[in-house]
């Protein structure tokens, strides 16, 4: 499994879509192979931090509500269980994420719109959501990609083009005023 890094360019892509205030996924051509999760509430000025927390909780709740099979393989049957938001969040090959929250007060649908985009996109049919039962990486040779490095402390693989943010003990999110 790859270590996930926050990516400001992906955030910019997600924010561009959120600012359009059009409910629904962005076209594939606009996100160039990125996966995408969306969430909204029909309150156009809902707290942005609470929106981000609620969106993530909603996506993770799909696991509890609908479940995934023990083998963790994404089949059409699994996809149709309505767990695709959860599986995208935890997709083992995704290593970058960018998220945005926008207040849509001037659109036909008044809402607070939240979303995240992921590189690489998940939910590939017959792919592993994440592999279970395997040993975590302890050396670079354990990672299944070219030139990847193993962070043995976290037992996660890091792609060569990834620049992880420094680990933080806590987060103190601030409202976005953009």
TrEMBL record:
Residues 1-126 form the SCP domain. It comes from the Eukaryota. This is C-type single domain activation associated secreted protein ASP3. It comes from Trichostrongylus colubriformis (Black scour worm).
């Amino acid at each position: 499994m790859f270590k996930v890094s926050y990516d400001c360019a992906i955030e910019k892509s997600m924010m561009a879509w959120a600012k359009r205030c059009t409910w629904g996924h962005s076209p594939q051509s606009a996100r160039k192979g990125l996966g995408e999760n969306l969430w909204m509430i029909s309150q156009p000025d809902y707290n942005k931090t609470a929106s981000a927390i609620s969106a993530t909780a909603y996506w993770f709740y799909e696991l509890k509500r609908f479940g995934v099979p023990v083998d963790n393989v994404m089949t059409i049957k699994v996809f149709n269980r309505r767990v695709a938001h959860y599986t995208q969040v935890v997709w083992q090959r995704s290593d970058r994420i960018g998220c945005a929250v926008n207040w849509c007060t001037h659109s036909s649908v008044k809402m607070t719109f939240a979303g995240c985009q992921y590189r690489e996109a998940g939910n590939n049919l017959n792919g592993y959501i994440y592999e279970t039962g395997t040993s975590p990486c302890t050396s670079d040779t354990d990672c299944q990609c070219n030139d990847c490095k193993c962070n043995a402390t976290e037992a996660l693989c890091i792609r060569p083009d990834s620049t992880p943010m420094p680990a933080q003990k806590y987060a103190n999110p601030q409202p976005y005023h953009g």
